Amino acid sequence: MKNKLSLAILFLGLLVFSKLQAQNPIFTNIFTADPAPLVHKGRLYVYTGHDTASVTAPNYKMPDWHIYSTTDMKKWKHHGMKLSTLTFSWATGDAYAAQCVERDGKFYWFVSTFHKKSEVSQGGAAIGVAVADSPIGPFKDAIGKALITNEMTKDKPHAWDDIDPTVLIDDDGQAYLYWGNGSMKWAKLKPNMIELDGPITVDTPKHYIEGPWVYKRNGWYYLVYASAGTKPEMIEYCMSKSPTGPWEYKGIIQENVPNSFTTHPGIIDYKGKSYFFYHNGTLPTGGSYRRSICVDYMYYNEDGTIQKIIQTKEGVKKVK
Ligand code: CA
Question: How close is the Cα of 159 to the center of ligand 1, in Å?
Fold first, then answer.
């Protein structure tokens, strides 16, 4: 009897210990998706979507975007809802994937949403830009209209092909916008970050579905994206010596995630380590429309290629 009691206490202890150890998902107060990390003045910010669909809902319900931040990868501050589709007078709603980038002390939050039917657009997905003087806002519509409307790209027939913006500012100051569902499109941005500077090019890498994340590291340009699509998404990637390609396909870096059809890459180096943010559906009552953001380590090989991401419940360790 005494032994059984000791075993029970040990088991309980282990359970509590493993709960304390488990970090993923990292945000548990609301359902979050589509992580976009940014480092500014020693602090790591993560810009997120917000899933509010009911447990039984058959589709996404995403009203707004939130911001979290940390300085040690362990303790996260929720700054709250910092941008809504209501900020964009031309939008009908749906706060899809987004990324915030800094240029000359201003913060440009590129977002996917949907356009009202008007003289400008017949509706469908569109990309807008919000701007602020601080990484946590307050953000306002930077243009007063969409940067990209569905009509500006015709290579795909569906109305939601113009989603999921990612922005790279190259070392020479030239900024590039990449986006798209079903095909990847890109265009140069003017230094003001709110106007295209040239034509839109379609350049779709192998197995591409959506959610591109483009960045530069040690002289290599990386194009990381969600793939598959008829079955649950994975994350695959390409490398190039130029921001405009040609992109050399390098393979899968993340397999399917538990309990969510989609996943989405957000990659950053912070305090000497490389991190891979993504989402899955593992919070209680979670699922494909009630997702949660996780973070795990990312490792590069000497030739710049990326090792396969190991998804863990433990997440990453505290840093100073
Ligand atoms: Ca289009």
Answer: 6
Distance (angstroms) between ligand 1 centre and the Cα of 259 equals: 30
State the distance from the centre of ligand 1 to the C-alpha of 44, rounded, in angstroms. 33
What distance in Å separates the CA atoms of residue 218 and residue 282, rounded to the nearest whole number?
A: 34
Distance CA 55, CA 291 (A): 11
What's the pLDDT score for residue 16?
A: 52
Non-local (6+) Cβ contacts of 81 within 8 A are 50, 64, 65, 66
Residues 6+ apart with CB under 8 A from 25: 32, 279, 280, 282, 283, 292, 293, 294
Q: Assign 3-state DSSP to the chain and report helix, strand, coil percentages, each to 5.
A: 10, 40, 50
Task: List pLDDT tens digits, range 44-84.
Answer: 999 999 999 999 999 999 999 999 999 999 999 999 999 99
Cβ atoms of 278 and 48 closer than 8 Å: no
Give the distance (Å) from ligand 1 centre to CA of residue 149.
7
CA 47 to centroid of chain Cα atoms? 8
CATH of domain 2-297: 2.115.10.20
Write the pLDDT tens digit of every residue in 258-279: 999 999 999 999 999 999 999 9
Residue 151 CA to ligand 1 centre (angstroms): 5
> Token pair of 199, please?
């034509």
Domain boundaries, the chain: 2-297
User: In terms of pTM, does the model score above 0.85?
Assistant: yes
Q: Could you give the count of Cα atoms lying within 13 Å of 307 in the half-sphere of its Cβ?
A: 11
